[in-house]
Design brief:
The chain is globular. The chain has a single domain, classed as Porin. A 14-stranded antiparallel barrel has the order 1-2-3-4-5-6-7-10-11-14-15-16-17-18. The longest helix is centred in the first third of the chain and has 13 residues. Strand 16 and strand 17 form a beta hairpin. The chain has 364 residues and is mainly beta.
């Protein structure tokens, strides 16, 4: 009878089978009702590639995007031979650009502001991320004369603001030559404020000013990455423990969210250094303040041979609900050896993704 060790080794030596099983499991975890959540709002490089980053994740932002990306440094060298990578970033996304329609009534709106610092090395990383998610949900007044149901416009709005502070420790481990798994163990402190206000003069700033009540929960994200030459396949499942903040109808549950990706990372070609082409797709549906979404994205980045400059771009859209498309672009510039400034911007018809990002990235 084969020993357990023998079976594990045989499994690890079959990366395609292992990855298929992980993806299958991810698609069976049930629909995600992750209201107020925006998992792809973190990471300036990722934003510049429209979020097609699950199978790329080769720097300290892997602590958020795919914990297995840290372990993949050892097998692919895609982090440029570095041993320590530090990223400090800020981002802001919102929809729409104003909280009011042309008739003066409030419209559904949200704003996501993120910031954080992450430190990564092969197989180990630490991170802190802060997210503030503010929402406006108009409440229609339908009480007419003598009980007749009539739309008389917007009488009140529902405001909600969630501030998350996430502290994480990430580990990655190679299983054989081609498969890497990883996990981020995290403590998430969340402050949730909610309430109704008169529609007159309401704004997302008022949502951000709501009094909040804080609580702390433990959580875990897991990831896997299969590496075969210049090809990669990645999978991330976030919020396995589904932490809940608040209670009753105001509660926000960070539901499980699965995302898969494929990437091709080339070697140097002519005047170019590395070239990366990638695609991502959500495997579960997220419920946001603006409706359900299930994202798909494609991106590309190319660096000069000396890695001093890197340009990237991407396109993304939701495959459910309104099929609005967003376009992203980004640039990294080396200001000294091992130190880079990253910028990104997103626009297009998908106004929920309009925003900007700025990061300082240090490698050594």
């Amino acid at each position: 009878m084969a020993t357990l060790h023998t079976k594990v080794c045989a499994f690890a030596q079959s990366p395609i089978l292992a990855f298929v099983l992980l993806v299958t499991a991810a698609t069976l975890i049930g629909p995600a009702d992750a209201r107020a959540q925006s998992d792809d709002a973190v990471g300036v490089r990722a934003q510049g590639m429209a979020g097609a980053f699950t199978a790329v994740a080769d720097d300290a932002s892997a602590t958020w995007w795919n914990p297995a990306g840290l372990g993949a440094w050892n097998s692919s060298g895609s982090a440029g031979g570095t041993y320590i990578n530090v990223i400090i970033d800020l981002q802001n996304l919102r929809e729409p650009s104003t909280e009011r329609a042309s008739n003066g009534n409030p419209v559904p709106a949200w704003r996501v502001g993120t910031g954080g610092i992450s430190v990564g090395s092969p197989a180990l990383g630490f991170s802190y991320y802060r997210l503030r998610i503010s929402e406006i949900q108009p409440i229609s007044s339908i009480a007419g004369p003598a009980g007749v149901r009539q739309d008389q416009g917007i009488a009140e709005v529902y405001l909600r603001s969630l501030v998350l502070h996430q502290f994480g420790a990430t580990v990655g481990q190679s299983l054989g030559e081609h498969l890497v798994v990883g996990a981020t163990l995290k403590l998430v402190h969340g402050g949730l404020g909610a309430g109704t206000r008169s529609a007159s003069g309401v704004s997302l700033d008022q949502a951000s000013d709501l009094e909040s009540h804080g609580e702390t929960h433990a959580g875990v994200d897991v990831g896997a990455m299969a590496v075969a030459g210049e090809l990669r396949a990645g999978l991330t499942i976030r919020n396995l423990t589904e932490p809940e903040f608040g209670s009753g109808q105001d509660a926000v549950v960070l539901k499980r969210h699965a995302r898969g990706g494929l990437a091709w990372l080339s070697g140097a070609h002519g005047t170019f250094g590395t070239v990366t082409v990638s695609a991502d797709a959500d495997l579960t549906t997220q419920a946001t303040a603006l409706g359900d979404e299930r994202r798909a994205a494609a991106g590309m980045e190319a660096s000069t041979r000396d890695r001093r400059f890197t340009a990237r771009g991407g396109v993304g859209a939701s495959t459910v609900g309104s099929r609005r498309t967003s376009f992203s672009a980004g640039l990294s510039a080396g200001i000294r050896r091992g130190t880079y400034v990253d910028v990104a911007a997103t626009g297009g018809a998908d106004t929920a993704r309009r925003g900007w990002g700025l990061a300082l990235r240090v490698t050594f």
